[in-house]
Every structure is written in structure tokens, then in C-alpha cells.
Design brief:
CATH class of one domain: Alpha Beta
CATH topology of one domain: MutS, DNA mismatch repair protein, domain I
Distance between the termini: 33 Å
Order of helices and strands: EHEEHHEHEEHEHEHHHHHH
Number of helices: 12
Helix content: 40-55%
Largest sheet: 5 strands, mixed
Length: about 300
């Protein structure tokens, strides 16, 4: 695989919403914690203890009441003001550590580390960033370092999945890239959705390594230019720069689930008016405080 001189690091907060809640409840450090949607209808975030139990993201709370009682899961209503505040603290620290930063979501950011390897070891730098965020905010993060944003995503995936990494993975070495790509399912590649995964597997493309070695022109013809770009990124060719200015929003979504069956038209009208107003207000929100939140 080829490489280039660009260096990206993806810093991702672990189980962010649940971690924020645990931060102010140290007694729950090893307790399974779930965060619920605004009306407590669905689970929108899970601590690692809840994930181990097999409880899925987005599952309605009433469907898992027995598991909640059985395993002593502590549930919190969403507190987006708290999450936005802690996100801002994390991002401020990252801005101080890198020459350029793209705040990708409320709990993720890409750092431009191009040239940093000339003055310090990248793995050591990643560990330094992780330690600083942990010490100053109490939020634990994973750090993935690579020559492209797509590979940085995969490096971060490995940092979270394999405890032996210490939550920091340097994927600048082409041989390490190959070894990781060979054991990562194609569905775990950034931007490869469920439908695309199914079509790729019909073609015998099962791993990230298979996708990296697919013919770019053929993939572009059958799928899209976006997937062709992903192949090039998996091969160490940087095609995606940092987005330092958020693009104009193409849509605004503020979705909620009712916690009970609604049969009264007036109640429904009030809910529609409330969430329409909230969605409209997002057009003037700062990038870190907008309605869109990453799945946890």
C-alpha cells in the first residue's frame, strides 16, 4: 500500500452520553448505565456494561424492562445541555493540541497531525492527548492515527475494540494497515452501510482488505464515486481533507418517540409545534450544539 505525508488522528469519546452521566455519579463507575430519549421512550446511549448485556441501540424501553430490573441498569433521561458542555471542554483541549481540528460530531473530532511526527513520536502524542482529556475532563477517549481519515476511523475502531492497544493505535505503517484491514469486516469501514455491505459480500468482498484491493473503476461504476474514494483512502491516499467550516445544512431533523400511545389530536398538535420550533432553532445553533447527535 502507498502512503503520503498527511497525518490524521480521530479522537472519539467512549460511550459519551453514559460517560457524562457517570462523571457526576462516581458510585456508578462499574454499574450498567443507559441514557434515554427525551421522553424516556428509547435507549439512545449505553455504557460498556450495558453493551455487554446485548441491549441494542434505539430499543424501546418497555421491551427491556425485565433486563433493566434483572441487571440493575440505572437509566437517565437525556441531558443535552450537559453533553454539549462536556463536548466543548473536550474539543477545546484538542484545539490546543493540533494545528487544525474538525469537530465531526458531539463526541468525535479529526485532528490534523501533519508534520507532528517530525518533532515527536505519533503513538506517544496520541497517548498524551488521551491522558490530557481524561485528566482535565474525566472523559475517556480512543485515538486512531493514520494517513487518511478513513484509515484513522479504522484505527480508532481498533483502539476501542482491542484493550491491549491502550486505546491508542498508530496506523501509519503500511504493513500494520494490511494486518488490520484483513481482520475488519467490510461493514465496519466508514461510510459502508448495510445495503452496500450486502452487495459487496455478494461479490466476495467481506473484509476491509478485500475492499482495498477491489478495482476502483469497477466499484465506481457499480456503486458510486464515494465508494471508489473509500478504496483509495484505504490504500493510504488521502482524498478527504478536514472540514474546518461546516457545510450548509441540507436538512434539519428533530425526531422524538412518544412514550405512550397518542389518540388526542390536540396533544399531537402541541408536540408537532414544540419539535418544529426546536428543529427551526437548530439553524442558528453552533456546530457543537446542534440537534444532530451521533448514535451512542
Amino acid at each position: 500500500m502507498s502512503s503520503n505525508k498527511t497525518v490524521f488522528a480521530l479522537v472519539d469519546c467512549n460511550n459519551f452520553y453514559a460517560s457524562c452521566e457517570k462523571l457526576f455519579r462516581p458510585d456508578l463507575k462499574h454499574t450498567p448505565v443507559a441514557v434515554l430519549s427525551n421522553n424516556d421512550g428509547c435507549i439512545v446511549a449505553r455504557s460498556k456494561e450495558v453493551k455487554v448485556l446485548g441491549i441494542k441501540m434505539g430499543v424501546p424501553m418497555f421491551q427491556v424492562q425485565d433486563e433493566i430490573r434483572k441487571h440493575g441498569i440505572v437509566c437517565f433521561s437525556s441531558n443535552y445541555a450537559l453533553y454539549a458542555d462536556l463536548s466543548n471542554r473536550v474539543m477545546t483541549i484538542l484545539e490546543e493540541e493540533a494545528p487544525r481540528l474538525e469537530v465531526y460530531s458531539i463526541d468525535e473530532a479529526f485532528m490534523d497531525l501533519t508534520g507532528v511526527d517530525h518533532v515527536t513520536d505519533l503513538l506517544a502524542f496520541g497517548k498524551q492527548v488521551k491522558a490530557k482529556v481524561d485528566q482535565w475532563t474525566g472523559i475517556t477517549v480512543g485515538v486512531g492515527i493514520a494517513p487518511t481519515k478513513t484509515l484513522a476511523k479504522l484505527a480508532n475502531h481498533a483502539a476501542k475494540k482491542y484493550p491491549a492497544t491502550g486505546s491508542v493505535v498508530d496506523l501509519m505503517d503500511p504493513d500494520r494497515q494490511k494486518r488490520l484491514l484483513a481482520i475488519v469486516d467490510v461493514s465496519d469501514v466508514w461510510g459502508v452501510g448495510r445495503r452496500t455491505t450486502a452487495k459487496l459480500k455478494v461479490r466476495g468482498i467481506n473484509t476491509a482488505f478485500d475492499l482495498a484491493n477491489a478495482d476502483p473503476k469497477s466499484i465506481r461504476s457499480e456503486f458510486s464515486v464515494v465508494l471508489e474514494r473509500t478504496i483509495r483512502e484505504l490504500n493510504g491516499v488521502s482524498c478527504l481533507d478536514l472540514e474546518l467550516v461546516r457545510p450548509t445544512k441540507q436538512q434539519i431533523i428533530c425526531s422524538r418517540s412518544f412514550g405512550h400511545k397518542v389518540t388526542d389530536k390536540q396533544e399531537l398538535r402541541e408536540a408537532i409545534a414544540k419539535y418544529t420550533t426546536r428543529a427551526a432553532s437548530a439553524t442558528s445553533s453552533s456546530p457543537r450544539k446542534a440537534c444532530h447527535h451521533n448514535g451512542q
